[in-house]
Amino acid sequence: MLRLSTSAGYALVLVAISSHFTSQLSAEEYLSGIKWGKPPIVKPGDRCGDAPADATVLFNGKDLSNWTNGDRWTIEEGVIVSGKGAMTSHEEFGDCQLHIEWSTPTEIVGSGQGRGNSGVFMMGIYEIQVLDSYENETYADGQAGSIYKQTPPMVNVTRPPGEWNVYDIFWTTPKFKEDGSLESPAYVTLVHNGVLLLNHFALLGDTPFHRPPQYNKHPDQGPISLQDHGNPLRFRNIWARPLVPVSREQVREPFLRDGDKETPIKK
Question: What's residue 115's pLDDT?
Answer without folding.
Answer: 87
